[in-house]
Write a structure and sequence with these properties.
Layout lengths: L6 H23 L6 H8 L3 H8 L2 H25 L4 H14 L3 H13 L1 H29 L1 E2 L4 H20 L11 H4 L3 E2 L1
Antiparallel strand pairs: 1-2
Length: 193
């Protein structure tokens, strides 16, 4: 790092490093198992920088969990592009989405944001990005494959992600069953034209 590097650029790099290290620690130990001091040590930052950039450990967790969900959701695209029929597409997408390891943390992050008004806009921003990226992907795929959906693409992707997150929430709440017990593939309306 150069002393002559602009402060804003250093700040962006520090923020990104904190977020990256926190995401790894949260994935390994969970929210309760990670302290601000441990995150600061791993990121080679000071604890006050975490509160400066993210407001609190909960704020950092919301950013880390939902940004990691965005990364993993983008991985679904290659799964879908490899499928040649609407049936195999629906099945593969549903199975893969329900198995994403980032879903439990994303559900927890949304629950935290629901209780913390200062974090609600952060969760809304990440969900907006998730829905827009998924809609863009779906529209592109439909055009490439000459497929269609029975409802507007924006509604299709919101329904899909709501079911994925809801299935995980129910499974993690102590109700008997697993996320895979939800017929997510049947929920998707992707079909040939």
């Amino acid at each position: 790092m150069s002393i002559s590097e602009p402060a804003r650029a250093r700040g962006r790099r520090t923020r990104a490093r904190i977020l990256r290290c926190a995401a790894a620690l949260f994935a390994e130990r969970g929210l309760a198992g990670v302290s601000v001091a441990a995150i600061a040590r791993a990121a080679e930052a000071y604890p006050h920088q975490i509160t400066y950039y993210f407001g609190s450990k909960d704020g950092l967790f919301v950013h880390a969990a939902l940004s990691t969900l965005l990364r993993d959701a983008a991985r679904l695209e290659s799964v879908g592009y490899r499928r040649r029929t609407p049936e195999t597409f629906r099945s593969a997408l549903a199975r893969t989405a329900l198995a994403l390891p980032t879903i439990p943390a994303a559900v927890q992050a949304m629950s935290i944001a629901r209780e913390r008004p200062e974090l609600q806009s952060t969760a809304q921003l990440y969900l907006t990005i998730l829905f827009r990226q998924a809609e863009h992907y779906l529209v592109t795929l439909l055009d490439r494959r000459a497929w269609t959906v029975d409802r507007p693409p924006a509604v299709e992707v919101r329904t899909f992600w709501s079911a994925v997150l809801g299935a995980r929430l129910i499974a993690d709440s102590g109700h008997g069953g697993r996320p895979a017990d939800v017929d997510l593939a049947g929920l998707l309306t992707v079909r040939a034209r």
